[in-house]
Amino acid sequence: MSRSRKSTAAEAKLKKKEYDRKRREKLKNCPESLEKLREKERLKYLNKKEKGQVKSVSAMSSRERRQKQKLWRLNSSKYREKNQNVLKHDINDFLEKDENSRMCPGKRDFVRSEKLLKQKRLLTDNMRNLHKKFLNSVTYKISLSTFCKYRPFWVTWANLKERDTCKFVVHVNIELIISKLHENKVILHNNIPSLLSDITCDIYCTKCLFRECINCRDKALEYNLSQATKTITYRQWMYENLTYEKNGETKTVRKPLKKEIT
């Protein structure tokens, strides 16, 4: 019978780390045990302080204070880096969901950054609306600028070529009209989800959207017509035939363009 191999220092450290993690989880689920542990640690700290093993900042020498400050800076840096990595991971997972972005199917639809090659994904909504949606899915709060800062480089917006779809040419036009009406104070809403939530029970329910729901089919949108004679200029995506020359030949291509309408 073979003799059991002795565990190395690294394996023992990993086992202790796993044991401590399980112990912390167990304490979190039992408030009484957690309070007892805190009281025990508190008394332990006070005993050390009485024996002079723990010094306050005012009682430290200049050298001891510098060493402590260096340690505090290091710990703070590690803590911030850990939180930053968690935040990046959460934002990546959120923006890579199919409801928030769609993957480009083409073989050449990829982007490269710092030797990392990723398949491109196109956002289905603007970052402001996605930020609000993200805050509803997590327990912490972050600003819009931080949310935009940690957006992964492969999750991006559609360019002119990629707007040649029903989603970007037809449906985005409604968003542009709503935005312009809100800007001129005709309606209170500045996006489609906000507008739909005012006239439907559930913006994801098919019955409510087709006005077949008994509870919300009679709801009407409130609007202000105090400036009914005012002329409004808004922008819309339209298809237009463009001509260009290539190798001495005149060719025509149909492209989506954003134009102003009065």
From TrEMBL:
Annotated stretches, region: Disordered: 1-33, 46-67
Bias (Basic and acidic residues): 17-33
Protein name: Uncharacterized protein
